[in-house]
Amino acid sequence: MSSQDKISSNAYPLTDGEATKIAIEAYVYASAIVQMEVHRRVLTNQEVSDGKQMRGPMNQFYHLRDFPDASVRDVVGPNFDTLYSWLWYDVSDEPLVISLPESTGRYYLMPILDAWTDVFASPGTRTTGPGAFTFALVGPDWRGTLPAGVEKIQSPTSFGWLPGRTRASRETIPEVNAFQDQLQAIPLSRWGQPYTPPAGTVDPNIVMNIPPAQQVRAMDAPTFWNLFGELWQANTPHNFDYPMLHRMARLGLVASQPIEFDTLPTQSREALTSAVQLGQERIDDFWTKAGRIRNGWRFDLQPLGNWGMAYLVRATVAWWAIGANFPEDALYPVGIVDDTGQPLNSANNYVLHFPKGELPPVNGFWSLTMYDSQMFQVANPIDRFAIGDRDELAFNEDGSLTLYIQRESPGKDKEINWLPTPQSGGCIPILRMYGPKQAAIVGRWDPPKWQRV
């Protein structure tokens, strides 16, 4: 390696070890926005939404009209408590006016994520209330006047995602579908006029049969870094990112400028190539160890929803639960080990026993959802992926609640409280708590232990 190949800052060259360290940090920093882009490409590569998949054209709502079945693999960790209404937006040309109808008391949540996966607004029951709400989603550089009654919400980046959720049960699906039909997204230039959303464009070169997260994991270094270079040109880094941006500049990655991987100095190319594997290993390792662990549950990584400079937390959540909300909107404790300290495995039978008065403390609702080791739902004999307070649960005589978590039926008399596990391998249960009370947010309440039986 020649001296000309080394990146210098203030005339101080980097050692190979320093270059690799910065490159790993850069991969962690870049990971979330690359994840978002690959998800966007796959989920918007559709002419029209069919109401069965989480896919539809840009700048228009598309809805899941029913709960996803076991075949859906578009996004890791889907929930089965709400029906999704999603919108991927691009407001680089003009604002998008979004109308939310009166919810008539039904719980709903419309978080809005920028390209870096930060939640910067969260209209819904908790924040804007149950009444109708109309706002214009505008780009970071937009200046103009909005119609009367339309509130401005400024997106920090040109593109982003609104993964809306409305509480539903199988019995209330028609009512929720009617609510979904009233959601509107209209370009500002067409506001107040008849408007029919255009059909989307399908790109045959986009891979549609591999989940987005797996596509990112399979990227080689030139593909990853060149794509990242495109993304941070269109979506400016946050103003608190300067320390990270200055470190990356020492490798020749200049903020908001194109990255041409093959033209970078040899030392930088070698460091950035190794960082694709080493950075992913750091994210995977953090997922297995981070968070507060109580009673065999790992509680949410902090911060949540708005990451600041916690880039490793941001990257980890983007890999395993992209679209996470603010803690005030939802908490997601993850079951990891049983009462003997062993990792949860679908080969074992477990019991969760909630004493009387110790159910998850929520202002909204709660559920327990079961996934396989890749965070996808798995087919089971009773077609049940989640269980919670929306279900007709059987309580014990003393008012306590016992849930049975296992592959095979615990018996006909107990099936009402049964959540099936996968037919093989590990399992990842997530306790979703919508509108959690303060006791859960600050850690004064913990779920019960996983009793292996």
Distinct helical segment count = 8
CATH architecture descriptor name of the largest domain: Sandwich
Tell me the span between the first and last alpha carbons.
60 Å
Query: What percent strand?
Result: 15-25%
The counted number of beta strands is: 23
**CATH-level-4 superfamily name of the largest domain:** Domain of unknown function DUF1214, C-terminal domain
- CATH topology group of the largest domain: Jelly Rolls
Major beta-sheet overview: 6 strands, antiparallel
Number of domains as seen in the coordinates: 3
The percent of residues in helical segments reads 10-25%
Structural class label: alpha+beta
Point out poorly predicted stretches.
Answer: 1-11
Provide the CATH top-level class of the largest domain.
Answer: Mainly Beta
Average pLDDT for all residues: 93
In one word, what is the shape?
globular
CA radius of gyration: 23 Å
What would you say about this model in short?
The chain is of the alpha+beta class and 453 residues long.
Written overview of the protein:
Helix 1 (about 15-45) packs across helix 4 (about 220-235) and helix 1 crosses helix 6 (about 265-290). With about 450 residues, the chain is α+β, with helices and mostly antiparallel strands. Helices cover about 25% and strands about 20% of the residues. Strands 3, 4, 6, 7, 8 and 11 form a six-stranded antiparallel sheet that branches. The chain has a four-stranded mixed sheet with strand order 10-9-5-12, with no helix packed on it. A four-stranded antiparallel sheet has the order 15-22-18-19. It has three domains: about 5-35 and about 210-290, VPA0735-like fold; about 45-190, Domain of unknown function DUF1254 (Immunoglobulin-like), CATH 2.60.40.1610; about 295-450, Jelly Rolls (Sandwich). The protein is globular and about 70 Å long. A hairpin with a 2-residue loop joins strand 13 (about 295) and strand 14 (about 295-300). It is built from eight helices and 23 strands.
